[in-house]
Amino acid sequence: MLNVTMYSTPTCPYCQAARRLLTKKGIRFTDIDVNSVELRVEMVNRSGRRTVPQIFFGSWHVGGYDDLAQLESESGLNEALNSRLAC
To answer: Which superkingdom is the protein from (predicted)?
Structure first.
């Protein structure tokens, strides 16, 4: 199984929507709260972005919630995960 990681904050509505979508699809993920400076720097260094959420399928940077929702509407999250496993 591919590791799915989401950098987020507890109160961000986009983070909450991303959590709901991933959970609804049955996708297990690691949720990293970026309230600490060190973890926020890690997120920015890894994604190049300062906003939350930032979502990764393995080393592939999916983007934020809007990117995740678009991916689901275009090809489906499970299919995207499976295609990343095949790489």
So the answer is: Bacteria
